[in-house]
Amino acid sequence: MAGTISSAGIGSGLDVSGIIDKLMATEQAPLTKLKTEATVMQTKLSAFGQMQSLLSGFRDSLSPLFSADNYSLTSAASNDSASVAVTSTAKAAAGNYAVSVTTLAASQTTVSTAGQFTDSASVAGTGSLTIRLGSWDAGMTTFTPKTGSSDIVVPIGASESTLAGIRDKINAANAGVRASIITDASGARLSLQSTTTGAENGFRITATDDDGNHTDAAGLSRLAFDPPGGATQMSRTQAAANTAATINGIAVTSSSTTLTDVVEGMTFTLNKVTTSPVTVTVSRNTDALKGMVNNMIKAFNQLNAFLDEATKYDASSKSAGLLQGDRTAVGLQNQLRAQIGANGAASSVFGTLSSIGVEFQKDGSLKLNDAKFAKALENPAELQKALGAWTPSNQATNGFAKKLAIWADGMLGTQGTLTSKQNSIKTQITHNQKDQVKVNERLVAIEKRLRAQYSALDSTMSQANALQSYVQQQITSWNNIKINA
User: Which of the residues 289, 328, 399, 470 could staple to 389 if both were Cys, CB 3.0 to 4.6 A apart?
Assistant: First the structure.
């Protein structure tokens, strides 16, 4: 028995699948349109995201122009930075400074006697070491404890009695002293050094030796340093000392080699003792402020160029930018340019950005007029007002940078124009996705109905073809009978 024919068109000879595919292609038109619209919306959403990023970058470029200090920045230079390095802030007074260094701050260093220990595993003894920070007089006859310090007792048990164990215990005690082991031809020695420089950060060490004798050259007593009356088995190789220097002939001292605000707004880093004065020169750093203004211009130009490209219409090619005619994009660009070109009331000297040298070019970009800006720099107080002044109670008297920042914050805020636009596009995309689901469901139903209809037609035509074939055979048979008769 022949198998049942199940493929549409086989019985009738019709290209049923081809017919259905063509009909469905026509039905697909609404879905294709929705997909195209979705692609455009996603592209627009990406464009507004990029616009938001560029506007945020422009907003950030304005922030340095708010600080009054940035209008009086200084730069400092040393004619011998290997000996005296220097930095300065806006508070530094322009001028020349002569710096001489007599001594550099140092930390106290003591070492144990050579030949007492073979290596770091040598046993020194048990008991305890007591460390106290303070200052020694020139002859080490008097020790003055450091204000606010206290005795730090470091217990040494049997498991910690080696030179390495004692080193680790001292370092763990955070007593203001760092321990290390130095090994040479004579064996190993324990070295102790103040963790902080300065005369008041010297130290003494007393030992409580479990052998009962706390001052001899045996046991833990070998690590004591308490001249002149106490046990002193260790030797001092470097005394704790303060930095001693003069600035313009005025003596200054410090517990470190860095002098901060000894001269207001200046930091000196002293690296070497000098044989002649080092000249330090402080001058106004106008290049830094110029760089800040140029950063603002650069950020504006990047945003403006993006908006130009996105909203343009090319008449020669009859092609439009992605956001050509978009009210949000066009409105943002118009508002931005209006803010840049507006008059301001913050300064009585500089009433426009153009007056300080920030000028529009023919293509809509900005460029700094160096000559105008150099002239504006001669009046830093008014320049600061023109750009960075902020008067919350009277927005009209805000500086240009502050006004632009407030405007940008409004555009970027949760209820701002850009945020609202992106939310609107996201909503449209969501609706589009739902519409695509509905259209897909309808297309599935249409294709199912068409296949059912054409399957029925195929069956009917198959039966008709079979009947036609039968009738044709009968006619042929009758004709043959008639001829034979």
Answer: 399
Query: Distance between CA atoms of 21 and 98, rounded to whole angstroms?
Result: 93
Tallying the residues shown for the chain, one arrives at 485
Q: How far is CA 456 from CA 17, 197, 301, 446, in A?
A: 14, 102, 68, 15
Phi-psi region of 297 (alpha: psi -120 to 50; beta: other; left: phi over 0): alpha
Q: Could you tell me which residues come within 8 angstroms of residue 131 by beta carbon, excluding any fewer than 6 positions away? A: 151, 152, 154, 170, 173, 175, 176, 177, 203, 204, 205
Query: How far is residue 387's CA from residue 368's CA, in Å, rounded to a whole number?
Result: 14
Q: What is the bridge-based pairing of β-strands 127-136 and 143-145?
A: antiparallel
CA dist., res. 44 & res. 38, Å (int): 10
Helix (H, G, I), strand (E, B) or coil at 470: helix
Q: Is 406 left (phi over 0), alpha (psi -120 to 50) or beta?
A: alpha
Residue 178: other Cβ atoms inside 10 A: 17
- pTM of the full structure: 0.71
Residue 4 predicted with pLDDT over 70: no
The closest alpha carbon to 331, from 67, 55, 62, 28, belongs to 55
Residue with tokens 């555009």: 411
Alpha carbons 243 and 250: distance in angstroms, whole number? 14
Instruction: Write out pLDDT tens, residues 139-189.
Output: 999 999 999 999 999 999 999 999 999 999 999 999 999 999 999 999 999
CB-based contact 51:418 (threshold 8 Å): yes
The DSSP symbol for 396 reads G
pLDDT, greater one: 468 or 308: 308
Q: Please compute the mean of the pLDDT values over residues 199-204 and round it to a whole number.
A: 97
